[in-house]
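Quick start: load a record and inspect it. Here is ATP-grasp domain-containing protein:
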Amino acid sequence: MPRVALVTCAELPDLDTDDQLVVEPLRSLGVDVETPVWDDPAVDWAAFDLAVLRNPWDYARRREQFLAWAHAVPRLLNPVKVVEWNTDKVYLRELAAAGLPVVPTTWLTAGDAADLPHEGEYVVKPSVSAGSADTGRYDLADDAQRALAVAQVEKLVARGSTVMLQPYLSAVDTAGETAMLHIGGAFSHAIRKGALLDGPDLRDGQPLWSEQIEPREPTATETELARRTLDAIPGSDALLYARVDTIPGPDGAPVILEVELTEPSLFLATSPGAPERLARAIVARI
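Running the structure step on this input writes:
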């Protein structure tokens, strides 16, 4: 009987409730399923026929440790080279350079002045994060919020982070984000994500896990953008799963917000048959 590890973190030893939905379909296909914690030194990763990243959601503040662990896992999906590329959102620069529409981003690192625009709503976030931790929305025409934004930039840069400054796209308040899920190299389903950020980041590094999620039928333009995006990613033919998040830009055309290839929520519960599709795709990789 093949052994598959659905990799998680200590906070979710039994997986997130959505990812639990794939366990029984895997077992029905004759797979021995376990949910080991990625940084547990007692785990023998070589004993698994496959390790699938699902909920290692505490990696962001320990990215180098996480990548060292991932390199040491013999059979990991998604592949470690993809994980290395995808766990820092500077990959958006490569996608933009490839001609793909990406949310306009100003990148700030050590030595850069926090010279922010004088008006408009902007999002400040680190390039390495999970669950919107250390991410806030700021009205830069408001003196108090502007001061908070500058302080956030300076705090993140001081700890060694690359900071992303992006205009807040108001379409998220109405249309929301469209997240398109691919499983086993094929489109599986899509969901709508409602607006999450309501103001400056005052959470002291805590993530935002509460999301408004509902099924969505993506437009042909969104679907085509997701496909073009995945085609532009090195090693995309080896992906077990992928999620492309888009949002309407100022002209209404979709732009890429992010591409989740490491440990994305797959929203299996929103699409009949999605857990079974994922289980079959996993078994096909053993």
